[in-house]
């Protein structure tokens, strides 16, 4: 999700939680007025709000455990999800082709993100985004979430969607792509070019917005993000990782084997070798497009799963 949780900055001086929610809300409303949000939007968005207890419960009780890549991938790359993605692709092949033609982003990565973020639009979240973001901004004493509240109000003020239609996760990520309000404002597109982007109900707008995000993040057309390979069990682990970029030919000289049917790539293509579970586990060569996916979600597991899911759906 593009929730930006890592960017949620606490204020060292002001203790919003200590001063109480009503005082914080008044300050937030004042900030919205200073940002030019009409009073009618501020009133519709925030008047009568109280801390959302469901948001607080979810935010305070996030599970604290570490999965291996094998465990994570078995959860997110299920046969059910793959089959659902194949059905979706069959229904929307022409749409994917049109989006790829416009943005240069391949169908597999869009399918991978679509599947992981919202199970192809089925699980978008049902929280009112302004309600959730306001609760998090107060409880976390966070400028970041407070700014996202203002951005969400801006979406309403632009006439893109009424307050009640801004639905998403408890952390404020909206619609099928799970965009934060600020990302919506900079990146969401109406694929048909008429009207505001509807990333909640329009597959075309949701997928085109994902593609636009990746294109802005540096996606390279006609290149993969990653591929499964066979790596020698005695390879030096210190040489692996995203930071150690070499060439495909370099890795092959060390005994890394690409698999039959792999994407045709030149030997001098820059690549890094990832062993997410260490020596003896699965191995992947990752390319520039892997970095573009990590702009969407800064997790190696996520980026590997996006690539893997897309390949499995289109296999």
Give the CATH superfamily of one domain.
Answer: Bacterial muramidase
Counting DSSP H or I runs of 4 or more residues, the number of helices is 14
Proper CATH architecture of one domain: Orthogonal Bundle
**Beta-strand content bin:** 5-15%
Question: What's the pLDDT, averaged over the residues?
Answer: 93
The CATH topology of one domain turns out to be Helicase, Ruva Protein, domain 3
- Give me the count of strands: 7
* Rg (CA only): 21 Å
What is the 3D form?
A: globular
The SSE order reads HHHHHHHEHHEHHEEHEEEHH
Any overview of this molecule?
50% of the residues lie in helices and 7% in strands. The chain is α+β, with helices and mostly antiparallel strands and 315 residues long. Among the domains are: 5-61 and 126-186, Orthogonal Bundle (Helicase, Ruva Protein, domain 3); 226-286, no CATH class. The strands form two sheets. A five-stranded antiparallel beta sheet has the order 4-6-7-3-5. A two-stranded antiparallel sheet has the order 1-2. Helix 6 (79-103) crosses helix 7 (107-118), helix 6 packs across helix 14 (300-314) and helix 7 (107-118) crosses helix 14. The longest helix has 25 residues, at 79-103. Residues 1-16 have low confidence and may be disordered.
List keywords for this structure.
globular; disordered N terminus; two-stranded antiparallel ribbon; 315 residues
What secondary-structure arrangement, pairings included, does this model have?
Blueprint: H1 16-19, H2 21-34, H3 39-46, H4 53-60, H5 69-76, H6 79-103, H7 107-118, E1 127-128, H8 129-140, H9 143-157, E2 167-168, H10 181-187, H11 203-216, E3 226-230, E4 246-247, H12 248-253, E5 257-258, E6 270-274, E7 283-286, H13 288-296, H14 300-314
Antiparallel strand pairs: 1-2, 3-5, 3-7, 4-6, 6-7
Helix pairs in contact: 6-7, 6-11, 6-14, 7-14, 8-9, 9-10, 13-14
